Amino acid sequence: MQPVITAFDWVPDFARGQVRDLRVRWALEEVGQSYRVRYLAQGEQKAPPHRARQPFGQVPTYEEGELVLFESGAIVLHLADSRDGLLPDDRVGRARATEWAFAALNTVEPPIMDQAIATLFEADQPWSKPRLSAVEARIAERLGEVAARLGDREWYDGDFSAGDLLMVAVLRILRDHALLAAQPTLAAYVARGEARPAFRRALADQLAGFTGSPPPGFAEWIARRAARVEQLA
User: Which has the closest alpha carbon to 18: 60, 77, 63, 70?
Assistant: First the structure.
């Protein structure tokens, strides 16, 4: 039985290649598991049928027989645990790879998302610009720590693992930002992850799925937001 994941049929340009179903698609490609996609138009993720799968009205979800999962990290770790290719065979190695998966999601990603909130989602709010320097200082500190631990290794603990998949997925949120460019070790690490054939297939599949249209009023919302940001500049 092919697993089914959910994804959006449209997102703004800045979100393409970043929506978290990409992480699940990548894991599925790495383990050689074919899958189907249930596409949602913007707004459908908040409707009762999808909330029955995902209580917070987000994507992705994962369905395989009677198993229904949400949260991309949980789905990636399920795939890694149930199929070969994303976790070492030995107990200690699996624990270390899982450790890096949690580090990516719990320690590295939160300040990066704070930066995204300040510069994208709440850029038109008066509190965003004043707090941005503190947010970026926290990111810089985290990236320095992550780079120091990676050192001259190709991956964090031996072969490429679910921990690396999630860490690369998190770091590439900053792929065009000076914060990542300031850490050549991490920029090269992200480039290695993006060069993997499984990642390239997953990214191509996600981008090909954006065949829908923006929700009503989106253009007007963008125009109002841009005007508000200009007023605050």
Answer: 60
SS3 122: coil
Comparing CA positions, the residue from 99, 82, 102 lying closest to residue 30 is 82
Please determine, for residue 120, whether its predicted confidence score (pLDDT) is greater than 90: no
Nearest Cα residue to 103 out of 170, 173, 152: 170
pLDDT digits (tens, 9 = 90+) for 37-47: 999 999 999 99
Partners of residue 83 on adjacent β-strands: none
Coil vs helix vs strand at 67: strand
Rounded to 10 degrees, the C-alpha dihedral 100/195/18/213 comes to: -150
Q: How far is CA 201 from the centre of its chain?
A: 16
Residue pair 3/64 in contact by the 8 Å Cβ criterion: yes
Q: What is the pLDDT of residues 200-216, one digit of tens each?
A: 999 999 999 999 999 98
What is the distance between the alpha carbons of residues 50 and 59, in angstroms, rounded to a whole number?
9
**DSSP assignment string, 73-94:** HHHHHHHHHHSTTSS-SSHHHH
